[in-house]
Amino acid sequence: MKDRIAMIKAAVEKVQGGREEQRKINAKFIKDCEKKIARIKARQERQAEKEMAELDENYNQIDIKQAKKIAIESVGETYFETTRFDNEWN
């Protein structure tokens, strides 16, 4: 009887001890993941700041042909309907 109780206690300690070790491993894993995520976010922020610094402030000055092409692609029929009578006013 005592051997059986000792075996049960040993099994409980083994299972519970394994859970504690697993908790420690999980906590370390989460901490490592948070560090990696922080590094990735910092890298993305630096990249965004770099892109903003390199951004040409004259990006709105595009060629007329490009503007017409963009208008046709994005608006299409509405563009033609609104510009159809432009030359008749002159």
Descriptive terms for the model:
3 helices; 79% helix; 90 residues
Strand content: under 5%
- Quantity of strands, as a count: 0
**SS content category:** mainly alpha
Rg from alpha-carbon coordinates: 34 Å
Based on Cα principal axes, name the global outline: elongated
Number of helices: 3
Residue-averaged pLDDT, rounded? 81
Name the helix and strand elements from N-terminus to C-terminus, one letter apiece. HHH
Structure description:
By secondary structure, this protein is mostly helical. It folds into two domains: 55 residues; 33 residues, no CATH class. Helix content is 79%, strand content 0%. The chain has three helices and no strands. The mean pLDDT is 81.
Question: Could you give the topology of this structure?
Answer:
Layout: H1 2-54, H2 64-74, H3 77-83
Quick description:
The protein is 79% helix and 0% strand. The chain has three helices and no strands.
